[in-house]
Write a structure and sequence with these properties.
- Helix 2 (122-134) crosses helix 3, helix 2 (122-134) crosses helix 4 (148-162) and helix 2 crosses helix 5.
- The protein is of the alpha/beta class.
- The strands form five sheets. It has a five-stranded mixed beta sheet. A five-stranded mixed beta sheet has the order 15-14-16-13-17.
- The chain is built from 13 helices and 18 strands.
- It comes from Pseudomonas savastanoi.
Length: 415
């Protein structure tokens, strides 16, 4: 047997199967990790030294998730033993005393064997991540295209796996426990890495692909820019499926964070930390009118005329009102609609005017019945952004889709 310089026996390290105890040498005394202090402690009846150096798991999957109590057979002393995820049995180091355990060996001893990952159903981890985002079994089932019983069964298995309730019902919502929040912080980037690794390994051929792309578009973008993009996608990739979600600067961040969309196009503000963003174009607002009065409207006429406003949230004011307020003027909104489609028809035959992005004005005036002109006040340009999930930055299919969005939504002259 090997001994150190002090003559102590050195344990033989075993690449364990998590279903069995580590048995380095025949004998007696159990060594355990106290997860509360993240330090090593030896059975107090032994003559071994008691190293206190801190060790934090290097692998997220090696997090200690629960404690149990076993008895040291030679002396009957109770020893707290950690259960290492996801093994159902404690990992023990059995030594013959007197012995010395080098502190730098502990990470190697207690690091989880990669073979143990075979015990983990990756689908369970995806269900867990979805529940963390949705806080509802019903919504998680809808998002994953599963039945509620399947999600409930998966949650039950997750609770057994982590030995924690994970979610506690509060009213109509499910709030995560402290342990669930801790697991999510470790698990989410790991799943992103897995997704990236898998996507990089796969080729993408638009002509034969049957991929489903989930994108978010603001209403003005969907109305004015999506039709030309869709024609190109149908020509290049007839087998793909495009799912469009309505977004704005408020809805975009949570949809990206939860993975419900992989890319979005809209005016944006705050985004998830791992999201990426690119300016597609800079746009100026245009005045839309259906009357036959010659010449552009003056500022007085602009403020006196009734206005229509396109607002997804049903607001009766917008950025134009902020500009008017700066010069001590205001307008009168008489109509608010949730989408651009049909706006020209609503203005026809009335004195109502509307303010719309320049790219929306081009489409609305092309059909006839309305015309556009510059506003009678100076306004700032606004940036139309494309934002996407960092985890899918190098996905071949997503890169192809983003290139087509850039091609048909971008305006090189304005960048």
């Amino acid at each position: 047997m090997k001994t150190d310089r002090a003559g102590h026996l050195e344990p033989r390290l075993v690449n364990l199967d998590a279903t069995n105890f580590i048995r380095a040498l025949p004998g007696t005394l159990s060594v355990a990790i106290d997860s509360r202090h993240a330090c090593h402690r030896l059975c107090p009846v032994s003559c071994m030294s008691q190293p206190e150096s801190v060790w934090k798991p290097r692998c997220a999957m090696a997090a200690i998730v629960r404690m149990s109590t076993r008895h040291c057979k030679p002396c009957g002393h109770s020893v707290a033993l950690p259960l290492i995820f996801p093994a159902p049995d404690p990992h023990l180091l059995v030594l013959s005393h007197p012995a010395h355990v080098p502190t730098d060996k502990w990470p190697e001893i207690f690091r989880m064997n990669r073979n143990d990952l075979r015990r983990v159903d990756l689908n369970l981890l995806i269900v867990f991540e979805t529940l963390m985002h949705e806080r509802s079994v019903t919504r998680a089932a809808e998002k994953l295209f599963l039945g509620q019983p399947a999600i409930s069964a998966a949650l039950s298995r997750l609770r057994g796996l982590f030995d924690d309730p994970l979610f506690v019902r509060t009213g109509r919502s499910m709030e995560p426990t402290a342990r669930a929040t801790e697991i999510f912080g470790l698990l989410s980037p790991a799943l992103d890495s897995i997704s990236t690794a898998v996507s990089r390994a796969s080729e993408f051929d638009p002509a034969t692909s049957t991929s489903v792309f989930r994108i978010g578009l603001s209403d003005d973008v969907e109305f004015a820019l999506l039709p030309t993009l869709l024609k190109r996608l149908r020509s290049e990739a007839p087998g793909i499926v495009l799912v469009v979600r309505r977004v704005n600067y408020i809805l975009m961040p949570p949809l990206l964070a939860s993975g419900e969309i992989s890319v979005g196009v809209s005016y944006t503000q705050d985004l998830p930390a791992n999201a990426k963003r690119k300016v597609l174009r800079r746009s100026k607002p245009q005045l839309l009118r259906a009357d036959s009065i010659p010449g552009p409207l003056s500022l007085d006429d602009f403020c006196a005329r009734p206005h229509a406003l396109v607002s997804f949230a049903g607001d009766l004011s917008g950025f134009i009102d902020e500009h008017l307020e700066k010069i001590d003027r205001k307008r009168h909104v008489v109509l608010a609609v949730p989408q651009f489609n049909g706006l020209a028809t609503l203005l026809t035959g009335t004195d109502i005017i509307a303010t719309v992005p320049d790219y929306a004005a081009q489409v609305l005036t092309a059909a006839g019945g309305v015309r556009s002109e510059d506003l009678p006040i100076e306004t700032r340009t606004f940036e139309l952004h494309m934002a996407w999930r960092g985890a899918q930055d190098n996905d071949p299919g997503e890169r192809w889709l983003r290139s087509r969005i850039q091609m048909f939504f971008g305006d090189p002259d304005s960048l």
